[in-house]
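User: quick one, fold this
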Amino acid sequence: MPSVAREIGGYQYFGWSVAAYLLGSILAGACAGKLSIRFGLRRATALAGVIYAVGCAMSALAPDFLIFVAGRLVQGLGAGAIVSLCYVAITAMFPEALWPRVYGAIAGVWGAATLLGPLCGGLFAQAGFWRGAFWFFVVQAVIFVAAVMALVPRGPGTTEQGRIPGRQLALLTLGVALIAAAGVVPGGLVALLCAAFGAVAMAAMLWVNQRSPDRLLPYAAGDLTQATGLGLAVIFLCEAATVGFSVYGPTFIQVLHGADPLLSGYVIGSIAAGWTAMSFAVAGLAPRHEGLAIRTGVVIIAAGVAWGAFEMVRGGLVGITLSMVLLGAGFGICWAFLAKRVIGSAPPEEQALASAAVPTTQLIGGATGAAAAGALANALGFAHGVTPASGLAHGLPLFYAFLPLALLGLAAGWRLGRA
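Assistant:
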């Protein structure tokens, strides 16, 4: 991202580049289940791959940062559909007892991809050709579509129709957009109003969701007296608390610690390494230990946020790397069991919706956190880039501002672990 901004501008839109991708993923995720019902899993997944390729091409050709952000939105549409289709397929194809192992396998695939991503992006960025990374991913998407058509079983389509939860998606989009806009509008009062109305729109989305027959999230979403609601709250809060490291971490690592793009990407990629390693380590835990795993995971996530915020500004590369590994390990320890309790505690008629809600809620948290991080960064003076002086002066508030979200996630997770 720093390499992109140096060529086409857009430091003030850093949070948008992540939020747009995640917002597109949410919109597609809400429609993915219905697409698979109508067209079958194979054709729906192949279509998602084509959309992803188009988005990558848009970013590769972007003459300015707003077109780049639009490409990220389209990429998110493709990627979000693929992720949601995977979760829907898991509950349909595997017994509940095997879900933690399957989620662990998915975490392994995701971890490998997250480790390879910085390699591709960093190599192209260091060569002065960041656009080449997106062309590389266009080729990857073409291969993906071919593999889907060859390997995924043909699923029968159906004429069954389901309505897209349009009102919830509209409120969600409005909320994320208002929070992101708080960082670029003139005047402190206007920015504060944008952030406040954005939060109101997010709350209204939950209110409408509970009263609509066409839901984006399970009925219990937002109800902290039920395991499904508690689990989704943990996912949202922890993701929102940590996404700022992915948005601004590489920039701070390059500016304050003298790392090149490749190394900075791998330092942040340590989150994936810790997540993947611990996912495999705990996949075989007995059901009686699930609550302990959830509690342990959320405690470690909160500790990782607190430690990582300090190391990012005042520490060194070794400390940053270790704190990111710790942060990822927390997610890896509790994630499969969070997902199992969210899905398993939902009523039978909402099991498929609860399955899709796990990645959807993670994306909502990421989009909200990325938008908020961008708004806060611009308010702290990072709208035109980060310098060593500004980073040291204002970096700690940027990362520590999200610690309260991690602590709220810890409280919700602690209660869920007792359920």
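User: anything notable?
Assistant: The domain at 2-418 is CATH 1.20.1250.20 (Growth Hormone; Chain: A;).
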